[in-house]
Amino acid sequence: MNNIIFNHRSIRKYKEDSIPVNVLNEILHAGTRASTTGNMQVYSMIVTTGKDIKEKLWAAHFKQNMVLQAPVIITFCADFNRFNKWCQQRKASPGYDNFLSFVTASTDALLVAQNVALVAESNGLGICYLGTTIYMAKDIIEILDLPKFVVPVTTLVVGYPEENPGLTDRLPLEAVIHKEKYTDYSPSDIDKFYFEKENLELTKKLLEENKKETLAQIFTENRYTKKDNIAFSKSLLTVLSSQGFMHND
Amino acid sequence: MNNIIFNHRSIRKYKEDSIPVNVLNEILHAGTRASTTGNMQVYSMIVTTGKDIKEKLWAAHFKQNMVLQAPVIITFCADFNRFNKWCQQRKASPGYDNFLSFVTASTDALLVAQNVALVAESNGLGICYLGTTIYMAKDIIEILDLPKFVVPVTTLVVGYPEENPGLTDRLPLEAVIHKEKYTDYSPSDIDKFYFEKENLELTKKLLEENKKETLAQIFTENRYTKKDNIAFSKSLLTVLSSQGFMHND
Fold first, then answer.
1. Size of interface A-B (CB pairs under 8 A)
2. CB–CB of A229 and B101 under 8 A?
3. What is the mean pLDDT of residues B64-93?
4. Looking at this predicted complex, what is its ipTM?
5. Please, are residues B228 and B82 in contact by the beta-carbon 8 Å criterion?
6. Looking at residues A164-174, what average pLDDT do you find?
């Protein structure tokens, strides 16, 4: 297991080969073994392999080619719908139409997703998470017919790798760890922790290509802009309301 | 790896033995290899081992004994503070003070947590997630000195197991999987999928102890009540505001 975790790379180019049914079942089954809140298991996995729905998902996920290439797309959803229906059929009144319940269900779905990712990789498959899932939740809800109390929170594309990239850089361990309590970062801590990242060949290439002075500007001005973040925040909050998770009074 | 995932049990009783430094470093390092959004790594891990802070965390986590027993408590936080400081030091204007950015950072933190949990288990350690983290975020922020743009989203207690429980029941795989699109549950689906859980000896014992007619009532009336969920929803939304994540206009 440890070598799977320490060798993880996101894969963005896939072979056409489909995933054998027994392998797919094993990786989905691995998801079900993750811890969930009170063992409520308030998540669902939507496994999409057909061309028509994949094309719609591809359009929603900013037309990233890997969504069409990879044989299997798994959309992980916060799902209180099944649990609520069970309660209602059992003379119990569910009180899970609020923000806390969305966060609870979202947590379940994400821990499940990481189990699925790791067991996929242990079977020689490649994976990539799609952050676009929460930006485009409204479209994905329509494409996948998600009912009330179901919200997509992440997506994995899964398939046999057609590329073999190196490990991605990470901040040093001491940058993300705090001992006992949080110790806030001084300006020199920030300089030290980002030094390696800022001096990669890849970073220098990006700065030239994007004609920017700093790598941080590529994040704030190109990749993850305030304008986009505000638009996606609004649409995600609207989705939480329309899916029934904002009755907080 | 797969046998670690398929044998996962939450451990709630721990030996006093401390965790060797090299083992602790390996499990924390495993966290850093998880996928994060755009490789921004917007999370932090607070590693608490000292008696004084553990006692305060124990009080916040509903006085669950395992928080005092286990040698290491790791609080996983959505953290845009470090990234924002980097942007500001690099002539870039961060636009990460909104709800989407909280969800992004929270997703990073949860995938990291599951890597940490699995590599802990592969080293013979036991773990348990504390769902109380999001209920009691306000208290935990004070105890751990979390600055703006940092919110705790889950906690792992980690230590050598003093118990060896059996696997916990799960819904059948077909209950949590949907093929191509979401297929909503009919009343007979619900009956079928919850049949095994409702007929466990454990369930029968719980019904007797709690004097309830159905297992669902134990969830809605005892464990996860509407009243608590609404109170925790309000307090979590207040925390998101006070930590700086609700500038959505």
1. 347
2. yes
3. 98
4. 0.98
5. no
6. 97
